[in-house]
Amino acid sequence: MVILDASIVNIAIPAAKADLGISDANQQWIVTAYTLAFGSLLLVGGRIGDFVGRKQVFIIGLLGFAGASALGGIAQTQAQLFAARALQGVFGALLAPAVLSILSVTFLDPKERAKAFGVIGAISGGGAAIGGLTSGTAYYIIKNDQNTIKLALTLSDANNNIAINFNALGTGTAHTLNVAFDGINTKFKATYDNGTKALFTRAAQLQISINGVIQQPQDTTTPANGYGFDLDAVIIFSVPPVNTDVFWGNVIANNFAAYDISDNVVDNFTGTGSQTLFNLSQSVPNSESLLVTIDGVVQYPSDGTTSRAYSAVDQELIFTSAPGNGTVIQARHIGFAGAVTSNVTGFYGRTGNTVLTNQDNVTIGSITSVGSINVTSGGINTTGAAVSMGNVGAGIITATRFVGDGSLLTGVVSSKWRANTAGITTQSSVGVNTTSLDVAGLTGVGNSFQGLYISNGMIIHDNTLNGNHYIGTNFNGLMAGPVSVGGTLTIDGVWVVV
Asked: Quick one: DSSP state of residue 119?
């Protein structure tokens, strides 16, 4: 009875809360007031039995326990109920050690004493087991870790992580837990194939129907209607479903992890001997996306069916048991090591670390090179655009036009350069200028000459020959006039003047 009373009251808590107006925060005292008084006074109760007498203390404890139970039953306020529960614990602390003492002195034969203690042990254990889960009762789930849950009596207890203590309830009868909508919770994990977590980044990747009505997807954690989503495959309904709702869902598309090269980082931690949760530097899609070592020893990740050394959810690394104090923990993010911009799956039809080859035809926009551009065959062709080059060391350039002032062209004075649609225009004369008058192999015209000399041919001039000019000995030709010579004309060759 003493052990039973610690847990059997859990069944009456919902009704007691409603009748006495007990708040969610204070309801724990219905159990705590009893267990605190009982546990703290057990040794004192045993010592009192040694002084006063076992039988007397047993009778006082039994009558007091019954009276305190009656007071709890007729309590009109929560304070009266808490006081009655504490009083039960006090008399229970007198009753329990007195019972054991009486058994010890009553059964002197060791075999008989062993049987007696076996019987009382079975009764005590049965009393604890009776106070376990109750069929037909709704319990609230508290997520403990990736593989275990706790049960709470009320929503407030679940929100405040106040769980039913099963460690003190023995084994009892097995129960089947049926998960159902409760009209309160709006968040549910999206899984398929017996627990495989769905991978999605948009609400529209899920198709959900409630009572035959397709729900509207919302990319938010606070949907005004329909449903939204949160990290780690959590569906968030705008209105909490009830247990009579007919739910149907379909995963339209899964997102599979794709890494950029910048994602391949290593997080370092130090074990404390008690810490099991460590915050990662970035989110991971699943446990297999981490390579975890403790002091250099590789750890095995948990999966959907088997709990192993660790699991990973979003940015949390969770160990099944705490790594030892001072141990070195490394979590290496692993995956595709590729581009740093988007999810690249191939490059010119190739995967991995690829480079351009002479078989690749590249189409680009503008190109800027700080080094040399070597063309081994073909050429540089442009359509409707000019080719602008800063410094050409050697070779021949052909083009329909040039861009620039010509300052970088070797052998041409930049101040004399003019652009034209065809040919070359110079500022002083038409033709090619020379700096010397008497050049044996000269073919062309002299300095500042307005006209044309032709070796072994003729000179055509319309009116005036200005300046001093020299016609060398190697020239034979014809000067056609009439010509007015404004300066000095020296002729050493054979010329005919007409």
From this structure: H
Question: Closest Cα partner for 413 from 423, 427, 401, 403?
Answer: 427
Q: Residue 126 — very low, low, confident or very high, per pLDDT cuts 50/70/90?
A: low
Residue 247: φ, ψ to 5° = -105, 140
Domains of the chain by residue range = 4-130, 180-255, 261-333, 418-498
Tally Cβ neighbours within 10 Å of residue 288: 14
Q: Among 239, 232, 230, which residue's Cα sits nearest to residue 203?
A: 230
Q: Residue 413: pLDDT band by 50, 70, 90 thresholds?
A: low
3-state per-residue secondary structure call for 54-93: HHHHHHHHHHHHHHHHHHHHCCCCHHHHHHHHHHHHHHHH
DSSP one-letter code for 440:
T
**The two structure tokens encoding residue 350:** 């190739």
In whole angstroms, give the CA distance from residue 162 to residue 164: 7
Task: Of 169-183, 326-340, 442-456, give the lowest mean pLDDT range.
Answer: 442-456
Contact 176, 182 (CB under 8 A): no
**How many Cα atoms are found within 13 Å in the side-chain-facing hemisphere of 292?**
29
Question: From CA 338, how far away is CA 316, in angstroms rounded?
Answer: 25
The pLDDT-based confidence of 222 (bands split at 50, 70, 90) is very high
Find out whether 225 and 307 touch, Cβ atoms under 8 Å: no
| Chain position carrying tokens 């790594």 | 323
pTM above 0.85, yes or no: no
The C-alpha atoms of residue 121 and residue 36 are separated, in whole angstroms, by 22
With contact defined as beta carbons under 8 Å apart, do 338 and 260 qualify?
yes
Burial of 113 per CB tally in 10 Å (0-12, 13-18, 19+)? middle
What residue type is assigned to position 416 of the chain?
A: K
**Looking at residue 170, what is its pLDDT?**
45
**DSSP-derived pairing of the beta strands 206-210 and 213-214:** antiparallel
